[in-house]
Write a structure and sequence with these properties.
It contains three helices and five strands, in the order E-H-H-E-E-E-E-H. With 129 residues, the chain is of the alpha+beta class. Strands 1-3-4-5-2 form a five-stranded antiparallel beta sheet. The radius of gyration is 15 Å and the shape is elongated.
Length: 129
């Protein structure tokens, strides 16, 4: 199932050439991932407060295909690729209409209170899977 998160490009997202600064795509897909988790009923703030567990990006493999510009309406899509014991693999895209602008394979890791990898709690695993 593909999750979709809409956003608009603001002036602050662009560089001197008027196109989205490359690092901002990472912010866009972060928002998409946060909304994907929320849509599955996982409250990340509560999860951290109650268990000390957080999700951290371990790896991003990104392709910048076409530029987005000021005032563009974009959609970030997020799809689950794989759910391991402590690892979540996602495929994300940034679209302008039907046009694919950016793609990323993202690996998240579940970290415990001490900052070490830890298994996903059963209820979180069930919600995300």
């Amino acid at each position: 199932m593909t999750h979709r998160h809409a956003l608009r490009v603001y002036y602050e997202d662009t560089d001197l050439a008027g196109i989205v600064y490359y690092a901002n795509y990472l912010k866009f897909i972060e928002r998409g991932r946060s909304e994907w988790v929320r849509a599955r009923g996982v409250d990340q703030g509560r999860l951290k407060a109650e268990t000390g567990i957080v999700f951290a990006v371990r790896r991003v493999e990104a392709d910048y295909l076409r530029p987005a510009r000021f005032d563009d309406e974009l959609v970030v899509t997020t799809e689950l690729r794989d759910l391991g014991g402590a690892r979540i693999s996602l495929w994300q895209e940034v679209l302008r209409g039907d046009e694919r602008l950016f793609t990323a394979a993202v690996t998240l890791v579940c970290l415990g209170p001490e900052g070490a990898a830890t298994r996903l709690p059963a209820q979180v695993r069930a919600a995300l899977g």
